[in-house]
Amino acid sequence: RKPSEFVIPSALKASGHLSDMRTGETVHALVVKYDFESDAFVISALIDMYSKCVNIKSAKRVFDRMADKDLVALNAMVSGYVQHGIVKQALVLVQEMKLLGMKTNVITWNTIIAGFSQENDEVMVWETFRQMRKDGIEPDMVSWTSVISGFVQNFCNKEAFDTFKWMLDAGTRPSTATISGLLPACATAAD
To answer: Which of 42, 77, 141, 178 is the most buried (most CB within 10 A)?
Structure first.
């Protein structure tokens, strides 16, 4: 009996969360057998599952085999690269897809910004901000919070405070997550 197009992504998501590549590969075989390879959500779930099961090469192979790559799959692949600490490869992939005419969205850029921020690569954080704006996408509260949290995690408190001020000047209101991310820097500054 053919599984539903709703069951397959759920099974892949569960496999990824459990890092159960064996079950994920079994589900992948069902994807091929029952011809779900043109379903963008199924393929994105496959990319996500392989990424979470520490098999980024298989995730990229699934992405590369897609006939009609879409933004959901691109964001899944970008997220996989960032999870594995190869943020520059995520940025290269985005640039390649843009050359092919694919549009990005704020999720694409926020994922890359968060990755560079976690790596404490201030130059690439701001370069990514610049590219994001060049694409016509304004940084949102998540973009700013990612940068601030990354600076705080890497003990770059001055940069975190400067970014917070810049965010306010840009007219973006902080969320509770933004404030919570900044609190450790405040505690350090008080010492």
So the answer is: 77
Instruction: Enumerate residues 6+ apart whose C-beta is below 8 A from 68.
Output: 38, 40
DSSP 120: T
CA angle 78/82/83 to nearest 5° reads: 115
Burial class (CB in 10 A: 0-12, 13-18, 19+), 29: exposed
Say whether 101 sits in a helix, a strand or coil. Answer: coil
DSSP 25-90: HHHHHHHHHTT-TT-HHHHHHHHHHHHHTT-HHHHHHHHHH-SS--HHHHHHHHHHHHHTT-HHHH
